[in-house]
Amino acid sequence: MKDAKTMAFANAYGVLAALENLCEIDEEAKEICSKIKKPVALCFDVKNGPCITLEFSTQGCKFIEGDKTCTCKMSFGSPEKFNNLIDNSKPGRPSKNPAQVLKFLLGPFTKLTNILEKYLRASKEDLKNKVFFERSTILTMYVIGGAICAVGNNDKISKLSASAIVDGDILMGIKDKVHVTVHCKNHHLTLTKDACKKPRAIMEFNSIELANKLFNGEASAIAELCAGNIYMSGMMNMVDNINRILDRVAVYLA
Which backbone phi and psi does 163 adopt, to 5 degrees? Predict the structure, then answer.
């Protein structure tokens, strides 16, 4: 079963946070940002849920926790209502600078999220394009990284797994393509979207093709591990518990 609060955190820290990466790698997204005349910092404030800000400018997008830098804000009365924004494009209540919220939400924000959705819910036809395939897989890796932390910190089942992870860094990624680092401190998980220098554990897929198959449920992680296509090293207890959380992530992101 899915918990609405956990889903809201996964949507915020996984899906929406990937907009900053989309604006780095997609030409259409870059073009949309280049036309932003005045920087906009749009906050999504969810009661009993996440509070995040997305800072948009001609330089792209930056994901920030909290609302200190926001120029406009959209509030949601519950995690369920925020999830409706992601699932059904139902906006919340503009609670700071409403004119800017509505103008930006109906313009650049919607255009960017539509592009992101195309990558994350890619059709088989789109995936035939090599560049699209690679970008789709990389963006999915970033979403999964953020979702691991969101689910590990909030989902009741996954919190048991997080409680067994010792302090340190877990490096995850796709060889020669993209890496993220899950940091564990007092059993709380956070993410940075790059490789750490001294991980206590590593889990790396040997190709972007393999990663895509695993993300889409078209390959068996156990079979690929036995075949030597998934590299693991360091504290296996950390990797094992991250994999347990990943199983729950798959439920939330399905």
Answer: -70, -15
- Whether the predicted pLDDT of 188 surpasses 90: yes
Instruction: Report the pLDDT value the prediction gives residue 24, as an integer from 0 to 100.
Output: 97
Residue with tokens 């302090």: 167
**pLDDT grade, residue 89 (50/70/90)?**
confident
Residues, the chain, total?
A: 254
| C-alpha distance from residue 246 to each of 72, 155, 162, 168 (Å) | 34, 12, 11, 18
CA 247 to chain centre: 16
pTM summary value: 0.96
Distances (CA, A) of 244 to 19, 71, 196: 26, 39, 22
What 3-state DSSP class applies to 72? strand
CA dist 191 and 245 (Å) reads: 14
